[in-house]
Design a protein that fits this description.
Chains A, B, C, D, E, F: This is Ribonuclease PH. Chains A, B, C, D, E, F: GO terms for molecular function: tRNA nucleotidyltransferase activity. Six copies of one chain form a homohexamer. The first copy, chain A, is an alpha+beta fold. The first copy, chain A, has six helices and nine strands. The radius of gyration of chain A is 18 Å and the shape is globular. At the A-F interface, β3, α1 and β5 of A face β3, α1 and β5 of F. β9 (199-205) of chain E pairs antiparallel with β9 (199-205) of chain F, so a sheet runs across the interface.
Amino acid sequence: MGKRHDQRDPSQLREVNFTLDYTEMALASCLIEVGKTKVICSVSADDRVPPWLRGKGSGWLTAEYSMLPSATRERTPREAVRGKQGGRTVEIQRLIGRSLRSSIDLRRLGEMELVVDCDVLQADGGTRTASITGASVALRAALVRLEKAGRIRSDTLISSIGAVSVGIVDGQAVLDLDYHEDSAAEVDMNVVMNNQGEYVEIQGTAEGATFSKSQLVDLLKLAESGIRTLLSLGDMALTGLA
Amino acid sequence: MGKRHDQRDPSQLREVNFTLDYTEMALASCLIEVGKTKVICSVSADDRVPPWLRGKGSGWLTAEYSMLPSATRERTPREAVRGKQGGRTVEIQRLIGRSLRSSIDLRRLGEMELVVDCDVLQADGGTRTASITGASVALRAALVRLEKAGRIRSDTLISSIGAVSVGIVDGQAVLDLDYHEDSAAEVDMNVVMNNQGEYVEIQGTAEGATFSKSQLVDLLKLAESGIRTLLSLGDMALTGLA
Amino acid sequence: MGKRHDQRDPSQLREVNFTLDYTEMALASCLIEVGKTKVICSVSADDRVPPWLRGKGSGWLTAEYSMLPSATRERTPREAVRGKQGGRTVEIQRLIGRSLRSSIDLRRLGEMELVVDCDVLQADGGTRTASITGASVALRAALVRLEKAGRIRSDTLISSIGAVSVGIVDGQAVLDLDYHEDSAAEVDMNVVMNNQGEYVEIQGTAEGATFSKSQLVDLLKLAESGIRTLLSLGDMALTGLA
Amino acid sequence: MGKRHDQRDPSQLREVNFTLDYTEMALASCLIEVGKTKVICSVSADDRVPPWLRGKGSGWLTAEYSMLPSATRERTPREAVRGKQGGRTVEIQRLIGRSLRSSIDLRRLGEMELVVDCDVLQADGGTRTASITGASVALRAALVRLEKAGRIRSDTLISSIGAVSVGIVDGQAVLDLDYHEDSAAEVDMNVVMNNQGEYVEIQGTAEGATFSKSQLVDLLKLAESGIRTLLSLGDMALTGLA
Amino acid sequence: MGKRHDQRDPSQLREVNFTLDYTEMALASCLIEVGKTKVICSVSADDRVPPWLRGKGSGWLTAEYSMLPSATRERTPREAVRGKQGGRTVEIQRLIGRSLRSSIDLRRLGEMELVVDCDVLQADGGTRTASITGASVALRAALVRLEKAGRIRSDTLISSIGAVSVGIVDGQAVLDLDYHEDSAAEVDMNVVMNNQGEYVEIQGTAEGATFSKSQLVDLLKLAESGIRTLLSLGDMALTGLA
Amino acid sequence: MGKRHDQRDPSQLREVNFTLDYTEMALASCLIEVGKTKVICSVSADDRVPPWLRGKGSGWLTAEYSMLPSATRERTPREAVRGKQGGRTVEIQRLIGRSLRSSIDLRRLGEMELVVDCDVLQADGGTRTASITGASVALRAALVRLEKAGRIRSDTLISSIGAVSVGIVDGQAVLDLDYHEDSAAEVDMNVVMNNQGEYVEIQGTAEGATFSKSQLVDLLKLAESGIRTLLSLGDMALTGLA
């Protein structure tokens, strides 16, 4: 069980920071930093729901994800210039949206659409899980404000959620992979859990490899401990608000 | 442990058929039928690899997925008319490609790109897992033919893979959900395994719900038994070829 | 008057098969096979007509055409991936739509849009004429079902239509060109007729050549005899239904 | 055989004018006016051929067609704003290109691509046939200039071509339909012929109707006489040049 | 203060011509020729305003700009084929729209959208300023006709506007640059003024250079004298109409 | 000469801050804050120049501009989702690119393309001028680093540039408009100058109004004083680097 390339233990998260309302135009926003990874997560509310939901009395939450071109060591071409979102972007924003929807009661929300924007300022691995974790904090702040404004019921929030990546690197299960580790990982798994310790999403991928049942068990344990820590830090970030 | 709406046991697959070379223009093709779900999986070979792989001596495999507009009870708008592939399509074809790449040795393939097309003629649930399972059979037939033609080495294939969906419906873990069950499922999980019993992909989603660790264990067991059966049937379909 | 490369007489069709409801999600579908050419033709009904027809009491019929990437010997890039339908596709689906609209009374149809999907599973020449011929059969089945369901009047169908290609190959007028002949043809003509022996469409093209009046006469005669046979076979395919 | 709404005989063309080099930036251009229909047809030469022709020693000709938004009584939305060319546009420019290619010897042209632009300034019916007729004149001027500049062989031109629409209006076969007649026509046919009296293209359409063999014969006769006149007028327009 | 390459004085415009209603389908159109530059400017009226203005009792004016591919010495690719308008096009049409909106009272216009199309038939420098100048003439004709038809108030027009380019070429300030001068200019400035001598837009650009305050003063003087002349010529073109 | 809504004098800038390398993946980056407006300006270097410059020994600089959806009080739809950049975006990034190109010697740069990304995190007016000012600082840092790495000559930088908006609000000329003032301004002018006091760009617009010569003189004076201050602050931000 050796140290990792940045001296972390296998079960150690990178340094994590939440800055509530780093930008102040949206209903609520949260800048999450996980090591060098920086993501601004913002929540807006729209009184119109998507066409297929109109008149049904239920709300919706949708998420969008993007990286600044300068977020990566080698500049990433801008999707607005290419004229469409790439496959990776689409996959990530669908994951973020699904995960967050599991944490609120859409019927209690009423006919309102919440739009969550996750914009990556700097990418050093784990941007999708940082997005989910940061967005859950921003979402909770947004719901408090909507409730204070009398726009939603007080019991719309079901749970808080957190997400982390785990993987097998050099044969060892590790928590919270940075870009360097992610590039070398045999197995890469993103886990989303709520504060009741239940799974919301598990996405395990073995690009060019496979993984066994015992490895799966190890990875899920690591993920659970990491998410518990992230959820505590998120709670603290919201202290001032409550 | 009651019967399901179509009289299947919880651990029972739908009827499965493989028809090799239903269409004959591609290098190899396989029509897979799982209940009413019908998918044509075809494999083509291209001597040019994507730009970022050129001159590196390694090959690539890419997958595309589509549904005929008439494949669903309510007609699905054609993506070529809308001008882009939807998020669900992109997510599925990325999954198919990643899974199949784990079953071959890309360096042994040499500078060649295999293109796998999964076109759904009729959709009744489980189209992405049927695509993976059928495409693995077509891929194996294609590799045999490429080897006979002297275009690839004999050890390019690493494993055969199969995929199945499992889920929690009315609180019960069930195997191979059809469209009716899929719409009502609390949890939906797609599992891809190889013939060594190792995981290639696990994608578990709880849209509007969550799932516990013991439920996860039950679902993975069901999936494993289903995939073993699918792999046997796939082997039989290839008997004439070998 | 020598034999053709596949031993057919100049005035001989390839083997033709109609399979009604090969897929069963649409209102009606027909798999037509003309030699190796295979097309699934499906008909769906939508209670909304296009915006420019709303409130006018008249219906509409629109057609879409596509080829599976694996339908051709050399894989054809997927239009949904390229982001738009090609010129050939657009031209063909406009022809199919126009032809079928001539066979029904749009005012009697009432405010309903029929959508015809022609998806080519395998292409060996004559896909546009096979699409029209197969779609006319599926359309007639669909109209019978709509009438039984009380959704349309019984006199909506005006005629049945059929289509075939004719051309000049090696100086000889031939019926129903396959891909091999089509590539070598000096003149290529698609003819659509109804069961009263009247023309619906004539599209004669001499890519890199021209044709004389007497050649035109010969080609039109061949086409008429071919279409009569196709219309008889189509009638038989619908026997079970009536 | 009564007069038409604009007092023309059934077999009478509208007034036709050719203005060579109305614009002077292209290699050659021709403004053709047929009644109120006005089209600028221009020819440019590019030393690069399309990728699929490179190194084969043969040339190519491609055509593009467009209407100014202000060309029609009701403004037509601009295709560049909508982000794609419509189906009608694609169909027309493919027809123009095919027709013109039949009038030159692509192998003698050598590795050069001729681009023909047909831009409709005002549309009053018959824009596609006016485009072909005007473009053939511009093409002939361009070939003379290319030959003088020593860039092509003197025998590249095979024939001159002309095109006209004919149709059945109120049961009567008429030549050169204007917009008013075109909207009311039961049958609409575009015919392209060369100066040897041979057919290059025949496109007969019966939107919502059909036509008999004897009607076909009448229409083809009308078309031939009209095209002969157009070809003579085109020759005169080129007199100054030769 | 030497002569320019085409023998003009530094403060001399090229020859200017206005042809009212060169095309006659739109509400009003004006062909403006400035030297070899030719632009058709047309005005259409639509009773619907853009969504964000509906129900507010105010009107709107929007402009679109395009060049025929054959307008330039080297053929310009067609934007409808490329699938989008280029940056230069977008910038120009926004400038035209803004400028023209300053010349009318949008509230007096009422709920109506005026669409101005500027289509460049031939480009020899100054197409954006010719478009503004020609469009102002067409707009005034259109307003007269709308007023006669009782569709707008008589005081909707605020002013007439004109535009011209000025620049520094070989160190000398010159008026109305043609393409040859434009390519060589150190500084290029487009000025839009109204008939009260007030500025509507100033856009000065020094691609690869800079300009001083005294140069700015010289350029603005030249522009003002040029625009006065253009406004007089525009008034004359409208004489017949008033 | 009264106070403004935020208590500033007419000739007073908002508080300005430059943070060099707020993100650290690009060659250089600068976060500029002007009041609540926040823009990350990053510079990347690419050894390939655009196709039209290849082999000419000269370099290029291109700029891209975007706003986070959450940057504005009312959420702005994401351009990558809409599938294209809007007209305003295109206009702004062309202005940024042109302005910055005037500050470097492209021939001395050699065959290298500099890409400048200006991403607006929060928008409260003046985002295009903040982008230019911040990007000039990032560009200077990038050039110092490229020179140290031996990739460019030491004399590539010609000047530093700064930009500011000025306008007429309630009849009074004011410097550095925030969003509130910008919405109410009769005239809006963006001025770009270099550290020799010469103009690089002047873009004056009177949406729904006009402006006189004396107003122009006042605005240009205000702009000059504001830019001098911005250039001093930019120099200080770079002190640590030199």
